[in-house]
Write a structure and sequence with these properties.
Chain A: This is Type 1 periplasmic binding fold superfamily protein. The complex is a heterodimer of chains A (201) and B (818). With 201 residues, chain A is mainly beta. Chain A is 13% helix and 35% strand. In chain A, the strands form 2 sheets. In chain A, strands 1, 2, 3, 5, 6, 8 and 9 form a 7-stranded antiparallel beta sheet that branches. In chain A, strands 4-11-10-7 form a 4-stranded mixed beta sheet, with no helix packed on it. In chain A, strand 5 and strand 6 form a beta hairpin. Chain B is mainly β. The chains are: A mainly beta (201), B mainly beta (818).
């Protein structure tokens, strides 16, 4: 009996010590990570080909995946003007300031930006854009290409038509191992899908 | 910390006193005299045929190295009295049967010896005393073992368990399978793996338990709320997975080797078990592996559904007189592919996927596993001991578990080589149980359990960690007692748990948040087990259970697949009554989150006469403070609109019926009918939940005979019908959400009841055919699964939006036993 008792007590003692040793420490916080998943700011910069002040229009969702509403500029362009447009993607949630445009460019062979618009906004390109299955060959004036010679869409050229208004959609697709000459906006995952109000005046 | 340690010290001091008091109290020391002192030890038991279960008269039972021996009577029973030793080897033999030696001690009275005939591949075995896993007699328990388990154990644990009525699965594709008991899963179902609480990242719907069913010798399922015995989380039930038992005195090296090949997925699965027992010592070693390529639905490949699994287990047992020690080490490692076509960037992508005829990214067959995939591992070291004295038994167990989880998503560029979730979890557990000798008819167990956990994010994911780091200490103690009252057994139990967490995470701004959380709860159970006449029995058990909110429920923030979730402490309700996310983190003072409490009542009626057996289980589970996520609005993001969900608490009720009926037509033919019915409701909002398993009805016709030159031939045809889930919530399509977003409406302001993007899939019929033959020491099997190559989708598969379930599969297996 005494042997048993001392065994039992020894075990209890062991357990108590184990607990004391371990229940005291607070855990360390995880290390800060460079957030490379979120894009919350998209800027379209239209530069007149004939020279002049570049026009920038920004979409900014201050809390990224949070519920706070985003702020989005309306695009206002001059009629009958040729613009080159460049697009930048950023993560500026909280203290972040991560430019994701470079990544998209470097990984150009797995990204493509598709465009869609309403009505007769542009005299070039003609049509209503290349969004939708089977529409990938519709005209868009891509100015950049990936290593395979396929368009990316960070740099494009647009010639506005007579004054009017409508909407302008940009769709960034992530197409790893999928992007080909025949892949469309319905292949891959959407990383950015924004519709802008646009006014030609 | 301080509070928890003070509590703990007090509790332990109490226990030490209690132990001292009880062990010196006259009731115990006088209980029974030592039988070895006056040579009054005895052994009794029953000898039966292992296959027919008929008693074997005139079998010889001999105490080794002594003169003492006896023959069984007409009823197969034997009793040997006047023994001076408390333990010894007994040998049991009979003409035409495999004789064998069993190491016996008096602490396991009433043994049942199952003798196998010489021409059978089965070994003779002994069942000692009660085989109730929980030790709780009023709990309803189902068991998978032997042949039944052997033919299915190459499947995932969840799929194996779904062979028990009342169990269904929550799947993410085909490789990630979580078991559900009576509609509850994850942190509401407890898994006891090799005797230890399995601790992994159970908070995620796409996190299956890291357990290889091929390593199990038998699996028991407890349908009641056995929280009194096991502590938090055991709300829906408990799954108990046992490794092969290490028998002493086996005489020679034993083992089994098996190989299984399947046509669907072109997979190979192999396993090997070796074990040997000596006088005081036994060991075992086990290894198993799976190599699986892409699976196939009837109409297309399921690209990226390959899997790899590798696991092994080593064990030793030492037995000396009253002391029995086992040491076990097990390792499980899995690399599980998830359907490539299930990755969507936004609602438009989802809508395209919903309308597509076949999943996007469908490619030709491949063994490659690309992103998305999960790499998980689980290591367990366990030291377990029993110590018997007088009529008491002391059990102690220490377990250490190391769990790692890496989840790889489809990401941009080099981030594809980095896991998006990278977690490690270390868990120490210590269990002490004391089964005391009866005190005025009361017999029972007093126990204490301690757990310490450390969860860490491994840096380098390039995304803000989804869950925080935390340390978790928990202590609990319990007592369960039972006694006969009239012709029934009455059982009562009570338990107290205290848990303290220290949490440190990063919010969306990468700022650190820290919190200390404390939880405590008292749980109880009362139950009866009674026989109704000669052939019927009835069990009824009412038990309470609890669990603290898990880390995902408190701290989730942001996009996960095609929804956005905000945890209980990551959102507020603004002045217009609309929920919105916050950058920081709330705490218990700002938003109190109570424990989830469960009250489960389970009743089982069993009626068995020769050739017929009926079992019906009725259950009801009331969950107070049930934590779930509900739709709360539409969030505009750079990817377009997303519905967002917030975690909330409500009161829910789950109730239903499991029934099975077995009818033996002749000695060769047997029919089995089984069905489950389940209802779940949100009582506070008069609503239904998403993802509650649908009702099922199944029929199985089996045949078993010595035929075709085989020692045993068996065939079974199964037809299982799964009904459409008619209690599914309303449907809101992607088009509805887009339209509301365009009009600036909040779809959920008026009605925030649950919704789904698609209606529940139609009911389906699945047919399987199993053929099995035994020749000498070999067992051969051919299984035809989904015999009709039916295309169907399952309501509780989270990938049902994207692809059909797997089609026809032929599985060939061979097993050698020695």
């Amino acid at each position: 009996m005494t042997i048993l008792k001392s065994n039992f007590l020894a075990l209890l003692l062991l357990a108590t010590m184990g607990f004391m040793a371990s229940c005291s420490d607070d855990d360390d916080a995880p290390e800060a990570e460079n957030e490379e998943e979120v894009i919350n700011e998209v800027t379209l910069t239209f530069t007149p080909a004939a020279g002049g002040t570049p026009l920038s229009f920004t979409y900014n969702d201050p809390d990224g995946e949070g519920t706070a509403p985003a702020e989005q500029d309306d695009i206002v362009l001059a009629a009958n003007t040729i613009y080159s447009m460049s697009i930048t993607f950023k993560n500026t949630v909280g203290d972040s300031n991560e430019d994701i445009t470079e990544e998209v460019e470097e990984e150009g062979h797995e990204h493509q930006i598709f465009f869609g618009w309403t009505g007769a906004l542009f005299s070039s390109p003609t049509g209503l854009g290349n969004i939708g299955a089977g529409n990938q060959d519709n005209p868009v004036n891509y100015q950049d290409t990936d290593l395979e010679g396929l368009p990316i869409g960070l740099e494009t050229v647009w010639e506005t038509d007579e004054p009017t208004s409508g909407t302008f959609q940009i769709l960034l697709k992530h197409q790893p191992d999928i992007k080909t000459a025949t892949s469309s906006s319905e292949d891959g995952e959407s990383d950015v899908d924004l519709e802008w109000n646009i006014k030609i005046q | 910390m301080q509070l928890c340690c003070i509590m703990f010290t007090r509790v332990f001091t109490f226990l030490i006193f209690a132990a001292l008091l009880l062990s010196t109290s006259p009731a115990f020391t006088q209980g029974k005299k030592d039988c070895s002192a006056d040579c009054s030890c005895a052994i009794s038991g029953l000898v039966v045929d292992a296959s027919t279960q008929e008693p074997i008269p005139y079998a010889t039972v001999q105490i080794k190295n002594s003169e003492k021996g006896i023959m069984t009577n007409e009823a197969g029973e034997f009793q040997i009295k006047g023994l001076c030793e408390k333990e010894y080897d007994i040998s049991i033999s009979h003409l035409g049967y495999k004789s064998f030696v069993h190491h016996h001690d008096i602490y396991h009275p009433d043994l049942i010896v199952k003798l196998a005939t010489n021409d059978m591949i089965l070994e003779s075995i002994v069942i000692e005393g009660s085989t109730i896993e929980t030790g709780l007699e009023s709990m309803t328990e189902s068991k998978l073992s032997g042949k039944e388990l052997e033919s299915i154990k190459t499947e995932s644990l969840g799929d194996v368990l779904s062979n028990i009525t009342g169990v269904s699965t929550l799947k993410t594709g085909q490789n990630v399978v979580k078991p559900m008991i009576h509609g509850l899963h994850g942190n509401r179902v407890l898994i006891i793996n090799n005797g230890v609480r399995h601790e992994g990242q159970g908070w995620g719907q796409e996190h299956a338990p890291e357990i290889d069913a091929a390593m199990a010798d038998n699996i028991a399922l407890v349908k009641g709320a056995a929280a009194v015995k096991y502590g938090p989380d055991a709300m829906g039930g408990v799954i108990i997975i046992n490794p092969p038992k290490m028998e002493l005195s086996t005489g020679h090296l034993h083992g089994t080797a098996g190989v299984t090949a399947a046509s669907n997925g072109r997979s190979v699965n192999a396993d090997l078990l070796l074990q040997q027992g000596y006088k005081n010592f036994a060991w075992m070693g086990q290894v198993s592996g799976l190599y699986q390529g892409d699976l196939r639905a009837p109409d297309y490949m399921l690209t990226n559904t390959g899997a790899r699994e590798f696991s092994y287990m080593l064990g030793t047992r030492y037995h000396y007189k009253q002391l029995d020690l086992t040491l076990l080490y097990s390792h499980v490692q899995q690399n599980l592919g998830i359907l490539r076509g299930s990755v969507v960037g936004n609602l438009e992508d989802l809508d395209l996927a919903l309308k597509a005829d076949e999943p996007y990214f469908t490619r030709d067959f491949s063994y490659n596993i690309n992103n998305p995939r999960q790499e998980v591992s689980h290591d367990l070291i366990r030291l377990k001991g029993h110590y018997n004295f007088k009529d008491h038994q002391l059990d102690f167990q220490y377990g250490f578990q190391a769990n790692t989880r890496q989840e790889y998503d489809v990401r941009r560029g080099n981030n594809n080589d980095r896991p998006a979730i990278d977690l490690e979890l270390f868990t120490h557990t210590l269990d002490l149980d004391w089964k005391h000798a009866p005190i005025s008819d009361w017999s029972g167990t007093i126990g204490a359990q301690w757990l310490y956990q450390d969860n860490n994010n491994i840096p380098g994911t390039n995304t803000i960690p989804f869950v925080p780091n935390y340390n978790n200490s928990r202590f609990g103690f319990y007592i369960t007692e039972s006694r006969p009252v009239g012709n029934m057994e009455l059982e009562v139990g009570v338990r107290y748990d205290y848990q303290s967490n220290s949490v440190a995470g990063r919010d969306a701004d990468n700022d650190v948040y820290r919190q200390d959380l404390n939880y405590q709860s008292v749980t109880g159970l009362v139950g009866i087990n009674t026989s109704l006449g000669k052939n019927s029995s009835f069990r009824s058990n009412f038990g309470t259970a609890w669990r603290p909110p898990n880390i995902a429920e408190l701290y989730s923030y942001g996009k996960h697949e095609f929804t956005i979730d905000f945890g209980l402490w990551r959102h507020i309700t603004n002045e217009f009554g609309t929920p919105e996310s916050i950058q920081g983190v709330l705490d218990q003072d700002q938003r109190p989150v109570d424990n989830e409490l469960g009250f489960k009542w389970v009743n089982t009626f069993n009626h068995t006469v020769k050739g017929r057996s009926l079992e019906v289980t009725a259950h009801v589970n009331y969950l107070k403070g049930y934590i779930y996520s509900k739709p709360a609005g539409i969030a505009a993001t750079v990817r377009g609109p997303f519905p967002f969900y917030v975690y909330d608490q409500t009161d829910a009720i789950f109730f239903g019926l499991d029934a099975s009926y077995i009818l033996q037509h002749t000695s060769f033919w047997e029919s089995r009918i089984q069905g489950t019915y389940l209802q779940a409701r949100d009582v506070s909002h008069d609503d239904v939940f998403v993802g509650i398993p649908a009702n099922k009805l199944g029929y199985k016709l089996s045949f078993m005979k010595q035929a075709f030159g085989l020692d045993e031939f068996s065939a079974a045809l199964e037809a299982n019908y799964t009904f459409r889930q008619y209690q599914a919530p309303r449907v809101i399509t992607v088009a509805d959400i887009d339209e509301a977003n365009l009009n600036g409406e909040n779809l959920f302001a008026e009605d925030n009841s649950n919704f789904d993007f698609l209606p529940a899939p139609d009911g389906y019929l699945l047919m399987n055919l199993n053929l099995q033959g035994t020749l000498n020491q070999f067992v051969f099997g051919v299984q035809f699964k989904n015999l009709l190559n039916a295309s169907y989708r399952d309501y509780t598969n989270r990938l049902r939006y994207f692809a059909d379930e797997t089609g026809f599969n032929m599985v060939i297996s061979a097993r050698y036993k020695f």
